[in-house]
Each structure stands twice: as C-alpha cells, then as structure tokens.
Amino acid sequence: MENIAEKNIDTRPIKVEVKNLTKSFGDLLVLDNLNFNIRQNEFVCVVGPTGCGKTTFLNCLTRILEPTSGDLLINGESADPKKHNLSFVFQEPSIFPWATVEKNIACGLEVKRVPKDEIERRVDRILDLMGLRDVRKAYPKDLSVSTAQRVIIGRSFAMQPDLLLMDEPYGQMDIKMRYYLEDEVIRLWKELGSTVVFITHNIEEAVYLAERVLILSNKPAGIKEEVIIDLPHPRDITDPKFIEYRNYITDQIKWW
Amino acid sequence: MFTANKKKSILYRLLMMVLSVSSVILLLAAYRAVALANPLLLPSFDQIGERFVKLFTTPIKGVPLTAHVIASLRRVLIAMGFAWVLGILFGFSIGWSRTLNAIFGTIFELFRPIPPIAWIPIVIMWFGVGEFPKELIVFIGSVIPVVVNTRSGVMYVEKQYTDVARAFGASRFQMLKEVVLPSAIPSIFAGLRTSVSTGWTVVLAAEMLAADRGVGALVMRGWMGNDMALVLISISVIAIIGAILSFTLIKLEKVVCPWMH
Q1: Is pLDDT of A4 > 70?
Q2: Which residue among A62, A92, A99 places its CB closest to the CB of B167?
Q3: Residues A81, A32: contact at Cβ < 8 Å?
Q4: Fold (CATH) for B45-256
Q5: Closest-CA residue in chain B for A103?
Q6: Yes or no, beta carbons of B160 and A92 under 8 Å apart
Q7: Domain A2-96+161-254 coded CATH 3.40.50.300
Q8: Which of A172, B98, B172, B258 is deepest in the core (most CB within 10 A)?
Q9: CB–CB contact B164 A140 (8 Å)
C-alpha cells in the first residue's frame, strides 16, 4: 500500500501535529506515544478495535482530558480550546434541548463571540447546506434522532473549526441514514474546507469517507499503520478497489 | 385513514370528557345522599349556599370571605416570592460551587427534614402572632423544595452538554449562562411547583393555629362553632385557589421553557 501513498504527494500545509501523545490513567496506559500530522483540509479516519482507547484519544485532542505527556499542536502552537477553534461531535446526542435548531447551530459561535451578522450568515449557510431551513425554529423534542444529529454536525461545521473531531457520530443510525449522512459530511467538508478527524469502528465507513485512515493497535493504543485511500469522492462501495482497501484494513485490525 | 383516525380521536376525547364530568356529578349525588341521611355530619347544598351568602352579609371578624382569601394569598405570595429568589440563588450557589456546598450544604441537610409546621412554636415565641411569623413559616416550608431541586438541577447537568461547551472554549460564566442555567430550569420548575403546594398547605396550618384573618382561620372558626357548612366552604375555596396557583405556574412554565411542552 505504501507505493500508493507516494504517487500523490500531499502539498497542503500541516495543520495539526501530534507529538509523543501519551495518556495513562494511574497505571493503565491507554495511549502510547502517538505521532502523526494532519494537513489543512484533510479528512482522516481513525479506526481500531473496540475499547482500544479511541475516545480517550479524541478527548485528549479536545483537551477534555489532559495528556500525560506529549502534546498536540495546531498551527505550531499547543492546542487550547480558548485560543483555537476546536469542534466536537460526540457519540451521544449532545443537542441542547432548550435551544431551537438555529440557536443550537449558533451557540458555539456565540461562545467564541463571533459578530452577530457573521453568526447569522454562517447559520443561514449551514441551514441551506443541510436543508434544515424549515425546522430552524423547531426545538429538538420535535426532531427525529437523525435530524438532531445532523444539527449537531451543522453546529460543528458552522464553527469553521481549525480541527473538527467526530466520535462515531453515526453509531446509532440505521444503514440508510448512515449512507445519507456520510455523503452529507463529505459535502460539508468539501464545501467549507474543514479539517476533520473522524473516529469509527466501522471500517467500511472509514474507507468511504477518509483520505487517510489511521489504524490504532489494541490497548495501549499506538498507531499501527496509516493507509491513504486514493479513491475519488463520491466512492462506490462495490468498486473492487474499495473492497480491496476495506479487506486490507480489516486484516490489519484483526492481526494483532 | 387519517380522517378516520382524527374522528376517532375526537370521539375518544369527547368520551373522556363525558366520563370526567359524570364522575363529578356522581360525587355530588353521593354527597347529597349522605347529607340527607346524616344532616348533622354533612350540611345540605341549600345550607351551604345560605352560609355562603351569609359570609358576605354578616362577615366573620368584620371582613367578608374575599378579605380572608386575600389575607391568605398575600402571606403566601410574599413568602413565596422571597423563597423563590433566595432559594434559587442559594440552590445555585451550593450546586455550582463545591466549597459553598461544603460550608452550607451540610447545614441545609440538617434543617431540610424538619417539617415546616414544627417551627410554629419557636417562631411564635420569637416573633409573636403578627404577619411576619406566618410569612416566615411559609417561607421555611416553600424554600426547601426550591433549594433541593435547584441544587440537583445544577449539579447533575449532563456531561455531554458541558463537554460541548468546554470543547468550544466556554468560560466559567458562559458555561453557567449557556448550559447550566437552561439545563437546570426544568428541575428548578419542579421545585417551584412543590413550593407552591407546600406554601399553600403551610399557610393554612399557620392560620389555623393563630390568626384573625385567612382561610385557615375560617376553617377553625367553623370547627369551633360546629359550623360544618363554613368548614366545607373554606375547604372548597382552598381547593379552588390551590388549583389556580398551580395552573398559573404551569402556564408560566410553558412561557419560560417552551422546549418542554
């Protein structure tokens, strides 16, 4: 697979550098010396066996957890949610039930004190891109689970984040809704030029979305391998090359 | 199919309405039957009606029924106003700050299980039988549920909501204003609902012990004078006002938290 990576040399500037990232809880080492870079506007998927520390990994990136050692740099500076624009889509539905759809999308921008007219402009754009205009004044209780999750995704993209982190955002969706939302996330990513780290245990999803897949090893998690998926979007899951990638990554995960 | 369902639901609602109206009628009929059999224990509707009119023509303690109602309501509303404001502030403080909870939370836990009515002797000894001691007892009774619910609403904000705000880089104040406060509001309202019913109960108890005016005083007057019609009228008034208070609160809740209903 390495030779594919060499065919297209990525010239985009480096956005995020993860250096010697290590996290342990007491004696339990969860993340073991992770090193990798993410380029501007890159879409990276992280896959790994269940319970290997994927969520801990993400929580270190957003600084919900402090790494035990090592660091995460954004544009060369140590990541700080107060300084950098980080955005997070959680596994659990995290839509604010007390706010309307448009307020939910705007809330991160309000926290960052983005000017009012700019907030309005960005919220409108997201509502249009996601076809949520009709429900902009609705409260989450009136939305389906998948629409609520789409609002959360819209909220994250509206931030135009330096780094957008998604932790199995489609874990609870049925397969049809997942395909639809996967296409939507690709569309938003292309349209808005965001940098995305997407965590999933679903290998097909990773191959469908990512430009590059990071395979984590079993606990303590380290980076076992990087695979560059050299296929154009939108991808065809029945394409033999797609299946070849999928099988290869599956083998790598199984082979611990 | 859709219209059939709709028709069915209208029919269903009509049936439910007929059922609840007829249950009230049945209750009144049962009352009438018992009252006819035991005129000493239960006054008839005619007697109650006459007594009601007399409440205005020959007022008790010099004031008509409405003045008694207003006296009770005044006590409850003044005391509850303080209980809501102070209770929410205090509950918020001990829910938000571990330090404040360590200092004041334990003291509060010690006082919490004491029934408000048990304070009556002490309060009367200290402050006499004027308006203030009654309001104080109502305050004690209604502040407790407000504090308990506000505190737990603030303490148990769901972690995924605070995580979102933290990832966005929210300051402590923004966290409080944008996440903790709105997510605690339903719980705060649950406390307010309990405080209304507790406050209304406690004011009556206080008035029954020592008061010239108020609905509770009317109940006592009826009891002492073997005037069952007066007791029943007072009880009905208590029920109606209690219902109005909780109805108003439900309306208020719909305005303040439109996302819930």
Answers
A1: no
A2: A62
A3: no
A4: MetI-like fold (1.10.3720)
A5: B178
A6: yes
A7: yes
A8: A172
A9: no
Domain ranges of chain B: 1-42, 45-256
Q: Nearest-CA distance from B142 to chain A in Å?
A: 26
Please, what sign has the CA dihedral across residues B202, B208, B209, B210?
A: positive
CA angle in degrees (0–180, nearest 5) for B92-B95-B99: 110
Span B212-216, average pLDDT: 88
Query: Residue A94 has what pLDDT?
Result: 87
Question: pTM of the predicted model, to two decimals?
Answer: 0.78
pLDDT at B72 over 90: yes
What confidence score (pLDDT) does residue A253 get? Answer: 80
Q: Predicted ipTM?
A: 0.74
Count of alpha carbons within 13 Å of B60, Cβ hemisphere only? 27
Buried b vs exposed e over A32-56: b needs ≥16 C-beta within 10 Å? Answer: bebeeebbebbbbbbbbbeebbbbb
Question: At A73, which helix (H) or strand (E)?
Answer: strand A69-74
Q: Give yes or no for A146 touching B (CB within 8 A).
A: no
- Point out which residues pair with A29 in neighbouring strands: A24
Q: What CA–CA distance (Å, rounded) separates A75 from A197? A: 16
> CA B119 to CA B104: how far, in whole Å?
20
Could you state, in order of their start, the residue ranges of all structural domains in chain A?
A: 2-96+161-254
Contact yes or no for B163/A88 (Cβ under 8 A) = yes
Residue B261 has pLDDT above 80, yes or no: no
Q: Could you give phi then psi for residue B249, rounded to 5 degrees? A: -65, -40
Q: Which pLDDT tens digit goes with each residue over A6-32?
A: 455 678 888 888 888 888 888 888 888
Tokens of B138: 């109502």
CA distance B243 to chain A (A): 28
Strand-strand pairing, A14-25 and A28-39: antiparallel
pLDDT of residue A2: 47
Amino acid present at B108 = F
Across the interface, whether the CB atoms of A97 and B164 are under 8 A apart is answered no
The alpha carbon of residue A86 is apart from the nearest alpha carbon of chain B, in Å, by: 6
Q: Report pLDDT digits (tens) over B118-171.
A: 998 899 899 988 889 999 999 999 999 999 999 999 999 988 898 888 888 888
> What's the gap between Cα B191 and its chain centre?
10
pLDDT at A8: 58
